[in-house]
Automatic annotation (TrEMBL):
InterPro entries in the record: Acyl_CoA_acyltransferase, GNAT_dom
SUPFAM superfamilies for the chain: Acyl-CoA N-acyltransferases (Nat)
Protein name as annotated: N-acetyltransferase domain-containing protein
Organism phylogeny: Bacteria, Bacillati, Actinomycetota, Actinomycetes, Micrococcales
Organism whose genome encodes this protein: Glutamicibacter nicotianae (Arthrobacter nicotianae)
Domain of life: Bacteria
CDD domains in UniProt: NAT_SF (cd04301)
Listed Pfam families: Acetyltransf_1
Domain N-acetyltransferase: 154-203
Length: 255
């Protein structure tokens, strides 16, 4: 059964995998778990239960040393955030957790969904982050064998028949068999044409073992952290609201 706790764990594993795959690191400071993602110059605090200044101060000092341009915190909606606010964090757009099997068929868009990390057009941080799809195959990383962040990740790309890229997304295999959807995006001028739904179907199929046909009686469960602008999309595709969380940003951060 998917819970908010398992959703939080899945998102933590994604940020940890992304950090390691792009040359960053994960570390802890007095009860706080952090992911440093260098290609975005982003330092992320992952669901602290009782954040204290003793854990925040050394990590923020490390963020300055590393050259972070942005510091974020993902927080359970029921967790105390007084220390985070005292450190300068404030709420960003609220996150809502959605989970469930897809309810809309794929045949609403005529373009192509391609799986894999071969995207010649990708540059900069976008290109570097494609390395996360290879992390689960690596035999030597800073993550110990069996670390949940090493679970399989797939990337899906949406192209028109003319070859134009119009959308993308990632999915990471969850500990309970569900797929956590990340960074799903469709170009503004191409929205409401079924591309996002097609991407969800492509990501859902990406984990299927071709030697073991899927069981039609057990549909794949997807899990997503939605922003206010994407919540209706996930609901329309059949994912049910699990609950809400908090995404905070250190507004006073100066670099």
């Amino acid at each position: 059964m998917t819970t908010i706790a398992s959703a939080q764990e899945a998102l933590s594993h994604w940020h940890q995998a992304l950090a390691v795959a792009t040359g960053g690191k994960i570390f802890t400071t007095h009860g706080c778990s952090w992911a440093w993602q260098p290609v975005r110059k982003r330092l992320i605090l992952l669901f602290p239960e009782h954040p204290e200044q003793a854990g925040l101060r050394p990590a923020l000092a490390e963020g300055h040393r590393l050259g972070a341009r942005r510091v974020e915190a993902w927080v359970n909606s029921g967790a105390h955030a007084d220390e985070l606010k005292a450190a300068g964090f404030s709420d960003n757009a609220q996150v809502s957790w959605h989970a469930g099997p897809l309810a809309i068929p794929m045949d609403r868009w005529n373009g192509k969904i391609r799986l894999g990390n071969n995207v010649p057009e990708a540059t900069g941080a976008d290109a570097a982050e494609l390395n996360v799809t290879n992390l689960w195959r690596e035999t030597s990383t800073q993550l110990s064998s069996g670390h949940p962040a090493l679970r399989r990740v797939e990337h899906a790309l949406a192209r028109t028949d003319e070859g134009e890229i119009v959308g993308r997304g990632f999915a990471q295999q969850g500990l309970n068999g569900q797929l956590m959807v990340h960074a799903l995006a469709v170009g503004k001028e191409h929205r409401r044409h079924g591309i996002g739904t097609a991407l969800l179907h492509g990501l859902s199929r990406s984990m299927i073992n071709p030697l073991s046909p899927p069981d039609d009686e057990v549909p794949q469960e997807l899990l997503a952290a939605a922003t206010p602008s994407s919540a209706d999309f996930f609901s329309a595709n059949g994912l049910k609201l699990l609950g809400r969380g908090r995404h905070m940003v250190l507004r006073s951060w100066n670099q």
